[in-house]
Amino acid sequence: MLSIKKRNQLELDLSLEKLPYEIHSYSSYTAFYYPRNIMENKPLEQSSRWSSSCGDEMQYIIIKLESMAIVRHVCNLKKFKVYGGLTPNNMIELLSSGLRNDEIPETFRLKHQANNVILPCQYIKIVPLVAYAPNFNFSIWYIELKGIRDQEVVQKVYYDFITYRENEAIRLCLKHFRQRNYLDAFNSLQSRTNLLLEDPFLTELYTQLVMNGDFQVVEERVSNALEKGLFEEYIRSHAYKHQWTKIDATNIDGDSPCMRGGHQMCIDVEAGCIYLLGGWNGADNLSDFWVYNVNTKIWTLISSDTKVQGGPGPRSNHKICLDPDNKQIYVLGRFIGRDMRANANYDSDFYRYDIICNEWEQLSENTLLDGGPVLIYDHQMCIDSEKQILYVFGGRTVHPDAEHFYYSGLFSYNIASKKWKLIRSDGNDINDRIQFKSRIGHSMLLDPNEKLLYIIGGERDNKFLSDFYIYDINADSIYDLPADYAAQDDQDEVSMQRTTFDINTRELFVLAGLKDKKDKRDKKATLVRNSFWVYDLKMGKWTKLYQSENFDPYKTSDETSEPRPRYAYQMVYDSENKVQYLFGGRTVETEVSKQRRLDDFWKLQLVRPKSGDLLRKIKFLIRKQKFREMCLEGDSIKALKYLQVQLAQVVDHTNEKESSEFYGLSTSLILGDETNDTFNERTKLYEKLLEFFPEEMKQPKGNLIDLINIE
Description:
alpha+beta; Jelly Rolls; eight-stranded antiparallel beta sheet; 21% helix
């Protein structure tokens, strides 16, 4: 599987071009809304669009590229799908997505690889599925395709694609021959083609299980596979199970952080400490500084007013981040309310706290004068501890006139030299191929190993941004990834996301609130549900872990099973123990008088199957087959002893289904096994074991006989 950096480097090396095309075929059209209208970009002309004659799911339009190409993007339907292929009758799905209901053009990344093979295309089919208004016909205003036209490159890709298909056809034949025990045909074909059906490790497993029936060696091979990490992909394919737990913790005096929103938190995973600074309690900005010890479950008040210790004054909507190597915390930014701006100080002060020495240091009275950002709030900040570089992106500027503001760009701060650098201003950079806008309410996380910044979602000018970018620090380049979690779900609005990153599993976790109205300025718009997502960077896939039921925004009782949706909360992640921690925030009520700040503290544990449990499950499958074969041999005493000892050792007796299956095996001692085809039973077991191994190691998924059509 190509890494993100390698995939993106391919894009840099092979520049994308606009691909000319013609209309190949279509389902229908209405009046003067011809299919050819999508070839012209005339957004101000009402008639410049294709419109279907009806709104059923049989509508489509197929376009033919001037020449074969590698198609990467389709530009400007609530839901639609895109298919592509070398012929109009044999296409695969390249995209399933939807458009926002606004006038802004959108770009979508098409699937262009499968099984590490790049897909050449000459035909593209767009299938509208759902319109924004009921009983409306589908309309498409404009479509532009971008991809690689260089025929030397495309022909090489075409050759590789055809070769791959030829090889897969041969491997399907090999699979069929081995399943049917046609070993002469299998060996002859493999010898002539010199193709492997599967990884040699699995071939050896097949030999020991199916041909030799050496179950002890099979168990040893499986244990060896576990040690090699071969089951990691299978474990990752299982969705996490989640469990929220409310934490009731105080300091030795019985105190804990008060109700607040707009506070900031960071976590020192190594020390097991969560730090909390400032916030807004509904009347005043706060400057208290707390630490929660994960191990002792005790809060400690470090300072009731950090300004007294030479640190930052009261503030909210600032940002803090921890340098885990040097045990230091950096603080930047703050929000100034409209009613406080007349006599406010607009200098962008910048602080550092030394955890070991318990000392504050002001790094700058005003970062603007040092070449850094002006006073901003709702930005994001993270640190490359190895290189001693801080990164700050986005946020909105604070100005005496509340209507006068702009969005801040991407900055870096060299801690050693105390130098700021503007990496990207708001908007497009001349070196970037994609539109990269500054924003607020987004997430930014650093991968310190790959030197990548992940930037997800946010909002700008009261519009939610469902995008996902990577900034490659070393290459100074920006890439887009498949649209974020919001685009995967049929939701009108997402708000107040918080994202954490597990560097070991390379997964991004997003907790977000889902709104029931499109326009956030609509006073009836209410945040009603929690939604938790994970993005697997290795698999390139978003998965929704759970979505809560609707919450009554005026409910006043404490939640017992999970935290209510909220604004202005904070969440940090203990990657060592796989636990998310959430504190505080503001309730959802649209009437200001009914809003409440919160002081509840929660932890979210995410659990997947453990490798030890997986090994036990696999051994249960293997020993079941051995027991059945022992029953066929006729030594009932020996088989019974094996059932009671070796097989019982690998049964999860708390699992009702597994326990019932175990006790049902005893009937084989009395009645015998209904099936007496050892070869087929072993083959079925082998193919069951294949489910636990990585795709690239296994025989093809399909079956040869399924390719035969009977007409």
